[in-house]
Amino acid sequence: MVAVAAHAVSRAKVSVTGLDFYYGPVQALHGVSMEIPERRVTALIGPSGCGKSTFLRTMNRMNDLIDGTRLTGRVLIDGEDIYSPRTDVVTLRRRVGMVFQKSNPFPKSIFENVAYGLRVAGMRNREALAEKVERSLIRAGLWDEVRDRLHGSALALSGGQQQRLCIARALAVDPEVLLMDEPASALDPLSTARIEDLIRELRENYTIVIVTHNMQQAGRVSDFTGFFYEGFLVEFGDTETVFTRPREKRTEDYITGRFG
Amino acid sequence: MRGERWTEFWVKWTLAAASSLTVVIVALIFVFLFREAAPFIKEPGLGALAGSKWIPVSFQKEQFGILPLVTGSLLVTLLAGAIAVPMGICGAVYIAEIARPAEREFLKPFIELLAAIPSVVLGFFGMAILAPALKSVFGLPTGMMALTGALVLGLMASPTIMSISEDAIRSVPRSYREASTALGATDMQTLWRVTVPSAMPGMLAATMLGMGRVLGETMAVLMLTGNAAMVTFNPFDSVRTMTATIAAEMGEVTQGSAHYQALFWVGIVLLLATFILNITAQRVLGRARDRR
Asked: How many angstroms separate the Cα of B28 from the Cα of each of A216, B25, B169?
């Protein structure tokens, strides 16, 4: 019920209308429309290959990296069409950060990993960099564990720590939207719990969209849930309703584990 | 049951023998080189090798200083490296990261072809075209000099460096590039700040293997460097490398003479140098693999 109330006060950060997406001749998304509310956690669920990751990646135009992809429809962030020819993709990606399924720190030091986004944006001032790095690591809940070895290799961290480092790295450039593609699927339960706590904290300041295979996780961390099936957005609403009183039969079947 | 055990035994030992053969051969080469070179230690003594004059046949006094040969090899190798390394690495970056698939398919066979051209043929090309051209461009008395040899050797080594570096760049995980792009880096920033540094150990190893090839190359340098044994670091001077010395003189030398033994010492120095280069390259490559 909290979420419903929240819906009333929260405006749409990302608004998608009639989105079709193609990998070459294969259509991966069919007429998806969705309003993603600001400063809330929106979970995207559905079986493998249903298009939820593709949909996530349309929001920071990561699909641009794949040859032969095409899309029609509109994706607006704060009312601006991010696929308009005037959009600067680099600026867009600074506003829309991303955390990947498999943690992917660079083979650099912990400090340099977090500072990377700032450096490519042209920040040179050492003190400002150090301050931002510290703040980002604190926000990602990693500071206490790494403060003594900021200049050690990021690859020496554990899997869970690496994923939190990737979150810190994404937060360092002050994004408004944070996309998370199954951020905890490769982690043990304890590290998963830490990431989930973190997502709940970050919701205060960021608009978060998370793709997950884990139904319980969607239930625990999200305010809103969208269920994708075979490239269609079947159902979208506040998480409690989707999980307890879904409108669609397919949503219910998936959530109760009858397929997927 | 017994039969099977025997078969297994023989298979295992045949395979082991085949793979150990290389070790035996390397060891034998060392032993053989040392055996032929050894008498030199007593007469005229190893100190003679340290001299700066290589005059192995003389009516007054024979001199076996290998210094000019070592500096000759060094100069040609460094110059060739200065040409081949930037060329190889830039080419690798282009082919691995920037070229469209069609361009890559077009370029790669040419690189492999360049690597496969026999050095004698490249030597011909150097003699007939490069040396006269350099001679007239720089207004020199002769085109046979360190620079000419180095240019041709650089050309020879660059495909090796290019293809190994390209492998190194292409084996950088895609996830690094994705992470960089998602953080708002441009393609060029991703290339120079993430992809190339991550491939650096592989590119270093490629460089060292290429340099090893240059150091051991004989035919082209014999044909192109002018073969004057003197200590110099001027690219426009004629030089004589260790390899060219052995190739040119081994046919005429009296077996068992001091000159003969001195040539074997040159061979030992050369072998050690390439050995060290190779081992360093392997180490660097190995460390690069460990980090993944």
From this structure: 68, 5, 38
